[in-house]
UniProtKB/TrEMBL annotation:
Protein name listed in UniProt: Hydrogenase accessory protein
Gene3D superfamilies: 2.30.30.140
A Pfam family annotated for this UniProt entry: HupF_HypC
Lineage of the species this protein comes from: Bacteria, Bacillati, Bacillota, Clostridia, Eubacteriales
InterPro entries in UniProt: Hydgase_assmbl_chp_CS, Hydrogenase_HupF/HypC
SUPFAM superfamilies tied to this protein: HupF/HypC-like
Superkingdom: Bacteria
């Protein structure tokens, strides 16, 4: 099973590659077919492929949900 992660674009390298950052780690990703990608955009990544561009609100919400999925919500006793 793969988990798509919301990450932030830190640099657009060319027409098909960018650098994304999340969790204190920077990595390469491929974004062919994603229009108008810019530094600071949130994207949904799976297996180093950009699946879609997200709004700022969607990116932050997706990050909260991903963290909750991975680490659980200790306050409510929920564990995935």
């Amino acid at each position: 099973m793969c988990l798509a992660l919301p990450l932030k674009v830190v640099k657009v390298l060319d027409e098909s590659r960018c650098l994304v950052e999340g969790g204190g780690r920077t990595r390469h990703a491929f974004y062919e077919g994603i229009d108008d990608l810019r530094e600071g955009d949130w994207v949904l990544i799976e297996a180093n492929l950009v699946l879609e561009k997200l709004t700022e609100e969607e990116g932050q919400q997706a990050m909260r949900e991903a963290l909750r999925y991975v680490f659980g919500n200790e306050d409510e006793g929920e564990h995935p």
